[in-house]
């Protein structure tokens, strides 16, 4: 049924849903006529929703906001579907009629009275929806983030390996090289020392042999001289 009195927005009541927490939705009524329009809001589950205001009068070309608060749900309905509905009735009223004068009988069927009705169904939506980024863009961004993390981790690993190679390993190589050079130096000095000891030993042996030979010759000469001297005396 097309409404000619009130424009109702939105056409569906999207209610944020969160367990154990009450949430609120809003409806806007706009008078499309140049007359005063009275309205009344009804629901199939009045114990579940608090409606403010439940009735009122919208001036010509004016608007009125309706706040609907849902009690904190204790469980998630099957298939996340809601069967609750709202009904908004509207009727033209005469001048002088105020909000206090609105009674249920004003929205009853009667000759010459036009009562329009608009039904809204309740749709649950997440209380904390994700950022409005297209799905394709989200996948692309996610891939970029993963690639960035992989790249950053690979760079960290490479830097760690480089640091290890230039740190402990380099220090170890340097120490090994130093020890090796010291060993070579000590071996050369030891070899040189051994050569000097051998030369000294040879010199001592040479000097020792010459002394014994000289003494022996002197002894022999003494014997011969003594013998010769003795022989002459005789």
UniProtKB/TrEMBL annotation:
A single MF term (Gene Ontology): protein-membrane adaptor activity
Classification via InterPro entries: Ig-like_fold (IPR013783), MSP_dom (IPR000535), PapD-like_sf (IPR008962), VAP (IPR016763)
Protein's gene: LOC123145024
Record domain MSP: where: 5-125
GO biological process, one term: endoplasmic reticulum-plasma membrane tethering
Protein family (similarity comment): Belongs to the VAMP-associated protein (VAP) (TC 9.B.17) family.
Sections of the chain in a coiled coil: 176-203
GO CC term, one of those recorded: plasma membrane
Transmembrane segments annotated in the record for this chain: 209-229
PROSITE patterns: MSP
Keyword Membrane applies: yes
Key words, A-Z: Coiled coil, Membrane, Transmembrane, Transmembrane helix
Protein name: MSP domain-containing protein
